[in-house]
Amino acid sequence: MTPTEPPPTEPPLTEVVIAKDKAVFWMDEHGRWHNRHGRFEHKRIIEHFNRAIRRDQDGYYVTQERGDIRERVYFPYTDTPLFVTRIVTAEPIQLVLNTGDTIALDPCRLFTRSDQLYQLRGDEHIKFSDRALLNLSACLEEIPDGLAIRIGDRLHPIPCR
């Protein structure tokens, strides 16, 4: 029996980090990407940016690999870079995020701020887009203290923060 050689390893990628104040693009309070030429228009580019959002101890960034370089660009955003873009009304209700992640709607983690609806995931604030709110509107009810969500036959008050 002859010893087998391990497969050749790829050389490590060179990482280039761009600070938030040097980024040439940003996200507005509605989850729309912009650069100095205006709002991004091409759906595939928007989806690429959204799916490339990551977070570490320094904040949110987008990342991509080009050849032997991994770029990490921290970007400015207004409010939060995480948005619920679609509601899947199966039981339990699922929230599809702009990043492509899917999470369960958790009525205990919902809150409102400045007339906007959010859900917490750990310490991250995920904002509901206008389209997602429209899809969820049949479950929302006004109560004397504000807003509540009805799931099945249970009404869950949504606190304001």
Largest sheet: 6 strands, mixed
- Strand fraction: over 45%
Side by side, the strands of the main sheet go 10-9-8-13-12-11
Per DSSP, the total helix count is 2
Q: What would you call the shape?
A: elongated
Q: pLDDT below 50 for ≥5 consecutive residues: which ranges?
A: none
What does this structure look like?
There is one protein chain. With 161 residues, the chain is mostly beta strands. The protein is 10% helix and 46% strand. The protein has 2 helices and 16 strands. The strands form 4 sheets. The chain has a 6-stranded mixed sheet with strand order 10-9-8-13-12-11. Strands 1-7-6-5 form a 4-stranded mixed sheet. A hairpin with a 2-residue loop joins strand 11 and strand 12 (116-121). The longest helix is centred in the first third of the chain and has 9 residues, at 43-51. It is elongated, with a radius of gyration of 20 Å.
